[in-house]
Q: What sequence folds into this?
């Protein structure tokens, strides 16, 4: 609803190997200049404020584009995967419950199923996969 049919046709017809977020910004800049020449924008200070806001918006769009364009290196994914699995194995051992009233000889591990540790592991692994 922000583009006319003609603008949409022109935008889709533009050949660019990259994202085309900058095209509407260029159109806005041209329209703002035309509005100033026609007197719809009262003075140069108002035009300057419009263009500063446009440049800030364009900078934020560029920043988002760079986050999408530059992928996370493979080694970071591998380090996080190893950290999650190491954390889980450590928690399996470290969160075992020893009841002194049971009189364990040699303080052996209680081999119960740590439900919340498993839920935490599934959450972390699911988050890692996303």
A:
């Amino acid at each position: 609803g922000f583009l006319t049919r003609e603008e949409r046709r022109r935008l889709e017809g533009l050949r660019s190997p990259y994202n085309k977020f900058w095209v509407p910004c260029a159109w806005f800049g041209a329209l703002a200049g035309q509005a100033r020449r026609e007197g719809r924008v009262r003075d140069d200070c108002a035009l300057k404020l419009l263009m500063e806001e446009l440049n800030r918006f364009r900078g934020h769009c560029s920043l988002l584009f760079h986050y999408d364009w530059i992928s996370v290196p493979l080694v970071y994914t591998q380090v996080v995967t190893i950290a999650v699995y190491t954390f889980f194995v450590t928690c399996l051992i470290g969160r075992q419950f020893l009841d002194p009233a049971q009189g364990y000889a040699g303080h052996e591990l209680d081999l119960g199923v740590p439900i919340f540790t498993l839920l935490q592991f599934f959450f972390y692994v699911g988050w890692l996969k996303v």
Summary: DSSP finds five helices and no strands in the chain. The first helix runs from residue 5 to 13. Residues 41 and 47 are 7 Å apart (CA to CA).
